[in-house]
Design goal:
The structure holds two protein chains of two kinds.
Chain A: H1 2-10, H2 12-23, H3 26-53, H4 71-77, H5 80-112, H6 118-126, H7 133-143, H8 150-156, H9 173-198, H10 202-211, H11 215-226, H12 228-243, H13 247-252, H14 264-274, H15 278-305
Helix pairs in contact in A: 1-2, 3-15, 4-15, 5-9, 5-12, 6-9, 7-9, 9-12, 14-15
Chain B: H1 2-15, E1 23-28, H2 33-47, E2 52-57, H3 62-74, E3 81-85, H4 91-95, H5 103-109, H6 111-114, H7 119-123, E4 125-126, E5 129-130, E6 132-134, E7 142-146, H8 147-153, H9 161-173, E8 177-180, H10 185-200, H11 202-209, H12 214-218, H13 220-235, H14 244-252, E9 256-260, H15 266-271, E10 280-284, E11 292-293, E12 297-300, H16 307-320, H17 323-333, H18 349-360, E13 363-364, H19 367-370, H20 373-388, H21 394-407
Parallel strand pairs in B: 1-2, 1-3, 8-9, 11-13
Antiparallel strand pairs in B: 3-12, 4-5, 6-12, 7-9, 7-10
Helix pairs in contact in B: 2-17, 10-11, 10-13, 10-20, 13-21, 20-21
The chains are: A mainly alpha, B alpha/beta.
């Protein structure tokens, strides 16, 4: 009793505040323990495990004692297939990012003009998203097949010289894959952006109409800046889709012709499980993680760093 | 799972009368028509012993099935027996002690004396112990030529690789593809290996692939091989198919002159009702060096705790190499048997050619036997690029190839 009294006299702040902070929302904290545990062990723990093993000569089985330093990375960056993969990912990534947003937003804006049969169009545009990448890939493999697809049909109509065979031409094969990716994904982006457009207050439109601002200007200078959080969501979704693109390539070209349409995720999977070289696969996946972090960290810093209020 | 196992064990215990009978789950990737019929021969013979063969076929090629098989073994849910290509694919699993030692079966059955060529058994051996049962031999060194294509072009069917190369312009003039080629990596790499043996000779192949001699890989003899491969690439430029059997189909229908492919292609000709010597010609070693490589399939038996299952596993291993099973299986599969002492009277012409070469001992080890999966993968990456990119020069590809061989383990 006397001790507590004394302590309270000495510093009432710390004694009253400390237990409060730690035990505030006890139940919520208890409930989140499994999630914290999962995050630490599964995400962080496994990532560290993977990075560690990328410095070893692990073959079919992980071999933590066979340390080789940066050998796996040196081999990775002198492998043509990896360099082609990175280049393809860059082309696919930039084009897919820009085109998904432009097409998605254009479709959303058109639907937002209160057209008749909006529900029907929305369903049609969103429908490809219900297909998996494997199915999408196979469908487009047929459409782009030089004998049976677009090229074949148009040649049969009489334009004998017409050629459109992106999947068999090493120089443009990645764009053939891009077409399928955009077809599959832009409907989804449209729906997200449409939801954002619907969240814009009707009064903004009224005000701009009163001011006599043209519709396209209203979109670009007023509506789009207001939809920033929605665009960030769309961006993150598209970016995640880009980095993990794998099944689309497997279904459409399985990396061909030659190695012209290889992507990093495919390299990782094949090195780990088919070539029985875990070390090499881990090195490649660590590079993928690094590339994500290079984009993510500056963005997170800009997004959250300046605004923290406490 | 444990409950399930316990229940099955209990049921098996009650049901078992006199003999100890066990159910063995066997995984493999033999799913095409002829392959499935062949594997059914194994199942039939094994069921006849009172045990039960539980078929665990995995659709897709070895590339799809192998990771599944390996991850089940590593993940602690091993099957009782599994197909793999004999060679270095299971090396680490054996070293980790995950595979059953079959040495006692092998000694009792005298595998050392009956398995021909002996290198097949060497591929199953780690530290003097035998871990797998080879079941068949498949060889890569064949070219399949379409009689119809040559008749349409008005020239004779070539009898070796040089004549084949010389006949290409005439075929092209007749609107044919001289060389049919699938575009998958394993096909590119396989065809290159065949050209390597034919043009460079078996000694060069051994120097590079067995002894990992990077100087030989960069040398002038190998340069000739790469030039020949580049010429073959030009002949295959119009062959825009993916799968090997689509390419074989181009040969069967006379749209292409020939295809470099392993002896499994023979099954396609058989299904199409074609007769060797009449409708098509097969040239082992491309008609230059009559030699075949002895890759193939083998069964491995992951270690189990149950002594009863272990007994059944050993019984299956014994059965796979028994003469009758070997004959029935290999006739259906179109592959060569691993025993030199059995009679395949009903084999067709091409198979007989293969048997003769095998008996004369003109054999090479297969890529699976001498190169690790990692090195094979690197070579496949290189070859698929080389075959599909006409601007990739032979000299550049050779330099890259020598680099891979220098680092090979």
């Amino acid at each position: 009793m006397a001790v507590t009294d004394g302590a309270q006299v000495v510093s009432p702040r710390t004694t009253s505040k400390r237990p409060n902070r730690l035990f505030k929302n006890m139940t919520a904290k208890l409930a989140s323990i499994p999630m914290i545990f999962t995050a630490l062990v599964v995400f962080i723990g496994c990532t560290i495990w993977t990075i560690y093993h990328s410095f070893t000569k692990s073959k079919l089985l992980p071999a933590p004692d066979k340390w080789v330093g940066l050998d796996q990375y040196e081999r990775l960056w002198s492998t043509r297939r990896w360099l082609v993969s990175i280049e393809n990912l860059a082309i696919y990534g930039i084009c897919s990012l820009v085109l998904s947003l432009v097409i998605g937003f254009t479709l959303a804006a058109l639907l937002d003009r209160k057209i008749r049969g909006e529900g029907v169009f929305r369903t049609i545009f969103l429908y490809p998203f219900a297909l998996s990448f494997i199915v999408t890939g196979l469908v487009w493999q047929w459409i782009l097949n030089p004998q049976f697809g677009i090229q074949g049909v148009i040649q049969k109509w009489g334009w004998e010289g017409f050629t459109f065979d992106p999947l068999n031409n090493a120089d443009i094969v990645i764009y053939g894959i891009l077409i399928a990716g955009i077809w599959q994904g832009s409907g989804f982006i449209m729906v997200i952006l449409l939801a954002g457009l619907r969240g814009i207050d009707e009064d903004i439109w009224k005000a701009s109409r009163v001011e006599g601002i043209p519709v396209w200007k209203t979109y670009i200078f007023i509506i789009i800046p207001m939809m920033r959080p929605i665009f960030v969501t769309a961006l993150v979704l598209i970016a995640a889709g880009i980095i993990k693109v794998y099944d689309l390539v497997v279904a459409q070209t399985s990396g061909g012709p030659g190695i012209a349409s290889e992507v990093p995720a495919k390299y990782v999977i094949e090195k780990m499980f088919q070539a029985q070289n875990l070390g090499q696969g881990f090195a490649a996946s660590t590079m993928m993680l690094l590339s994500v972090l290079v984009v993510l960290i500056p963005w997170a810093y800009l997004e959250f760093g300046g605004k923290r209020r406490d | 799972m444990n409950f399930y196992k316990a229940t099955t064990a209990a049921v098996a215990f009650c049901a078992a009368g006199a003999v100890s009978a066990a159910e063995l789950e066997v995984t493999h990737w033999w799913t095409s028509g002829g392959e499935a019929a062949a594997v059914a021969e194994f199942a039939k013979a094994f069921d006849a012993t009172g045990n039960t063969w539980v078929d665990g076929a995995i659709a897709g090629s070895g590339g799809t099935a192998r990771p599944i098989i390996v991850s089940r073994i590593i993940g602690g849910d091993p099957m009782h027996a599994t197909q793999l290509n004999h060679g270095r694919q299971a090396e680490e699993l054996i070293e980790a002690g995950l595979m059953l030692d079959l040495t006692d079966v092998a000694t009792a059955e005298g595998w050392k004396d009956i398995v021909n060529p002996g290198s097949l058994l060497d591929s199953c051996t780690v530290d003097g112990k035998i871990y797998c049962a080879p079941v068949n031999i498949h060889s890569w060194q064949w070219i399949w030529l379409s009689h119809q294509a040559y008749a349409d072009a008005g020239i004779d069917v070539p009898s070796n690789w040089d004549e084949f190369v010389a006949s290409a312009p005439a075929l092209e003039a007749a609107g044919k593809i001289p060389l049919a080629m699938g575009q998958q990596a394993w096909q590119s790499s396989g065809a290159f290996g065949v050209i390597n043996v034919a043009v460079g000779g078996p000694d060069l192949w051994n120097k590079i692939n067995v002894n990992k001699d990077a100087e030989a890989a960069a040398g002038p003899e190998m340069a000739k091989v790469f030039e020949a491969a580049a010429a073959a690439r030009a002949m295959a430029a119009n062959s825009k198919v993916q799968d090997w059997n689509q390419a074989t189909n181009l040969v069967i229908t006379g749209q292409a002159g020939g295809q470099v492919m392993g002896d499994w292609a023979q099954g396609e000709f058989q299904v199409a009702g074609q007769v060797a010597g009449q409708d098509y010609t097969c040239l082992p070693g491309l008609g230059v060096n009559e030699i075949i490589s002895t890759g193939g399939d083998a069964f491995y038996f992951p270690k189990q705790d149950d002594p009863e299952i272990e007994a059944a596993q050993k019984e299956l291993a014994k059965l796979l190499l028994s003469p009758e099973v070997q004959v029935n299986f290999n006739l259906k599969k179109g592959s060569l048997p691993v025993r030199g002492d059995i009679d395949l009277a009903s084999a067709n012409d091409c198979m007989k050619k293969g048997l003769e070469i095998l008996a004369s001992g003109n054999i090479l080890q297969s890529g699976d036997q001498v190169l690790s999966a990692d090195t094979s993968g690197q070579i496949e990456d290189l070859m698929v690029e080389f075959w599909n990119d006409p601007s990739y020069s032979a000299a550049d590809a050779q330099a890259k190839y020598a680099e891979i061989i220098a680092e090979a383990d």
